[in-house]
Amino acid sequence: MNKVVANALEAIKDISDNTTIMLGGFGLCGIPENCINALVEKNVINLTCISNNAGVNDFGLGLLLKKRQIKKMMSSYVGENDEFERQLLSGELEVDLIPQGTLATRIAMAGMGIPAFFTPAGYGTEVAEGKEVREFDGKHYLMEKALHAQFSIVKAWKGDKAGNLIFRKTTRNFSASMAKAGDITIAEVEELVEPGMLDPDQIHVSGVYVHRIFQGIDYEKRIEKRTTQL
User: Fold this and answer.
1) pTM score
2) CA atoms of 144 and 116, how far apart (whole Å)
3) For domain 8-119+128-215, which CATH number applies: 3.30.1490.20, 3.10.20.80, 3.40.1080.10, 2.60.120.280?
4) Which one, 25, 35, 59, 191, has the greatest CB density within 10 A?
């Protein structure tokens, strides 16, 4: 099976309107810049995006928000994106705010084939509305379902043509779990090598989970908030 595609536009060619997509990254750390830009260019609309947050106003998922291409965000943080906040408060954007640990675990459970789990996070709050509650050892827990997507899009530091991926430091964040939770997983990488050139002990995601892979270009790797010390 040849998993290598030429570029981001080819990788996302069958993503259409009304699709549910997972996108790796945390803030601006490790986001799939090339594929996000390709989605903007393709102008698909009514997307449901599952991501920790939505980037910033003029970068990352913020570009899709700016063009009103996202119908619903499933995330844990509104944060640094003024347009995200504005659309949320005005009712223009449907938002499912999920506790961060719950979001991460729902994605991981999807990759493991586990349909649901119980967590105390959110009990007694709006998060609990409509969810099954059980008591274990005198403590209440919510049942949360695994979170799947039609497409998972991640960005890795290195990958081989068989789809094996290595992430660098904190860029692994949500991406390693998301790569296992999509029906189709697309990976863009900073360096694409031949099979057998990656150290097996360093691989974070096995190629069995990855359906398309390509060599990314022109990464900005923008810093969301620069902190300096005198």
Assistant:
1) 0.94
2) 6
3) 3.40.1080.10
4) 35
Q: Is the pLDDT of residue 230 over 80?
A: no
* The token pair that represents 41 in the structure block: 């260019």
Domain spans in the chain, listed from the N-terminal domain onward? 8-119+128-215
Amino acid letter, 153: I
Token digits of residue 110: 């999807």
By CB atoms closer than 10 A (0-12, 13-18, 19+), residue 17 is exposed
What would the two tokens of residue 159 be? Answer: 């990958």
Indicate left, alpha or beta for 18 from its phi (over 0: left) and psi (-120 to 50: alpha): left
Q: What one-character-per-residue DSSP string does 61-113 give?
A: THHHHHTT-EEEEEES--TT-HHHHHHHHHTSSEEEE--HHHHHHHHHHHHHT
CA distances, 3 to each of 27, 191, 229 (Å): 28, 15, 45
CB 25 within 8 A of CB 56: no
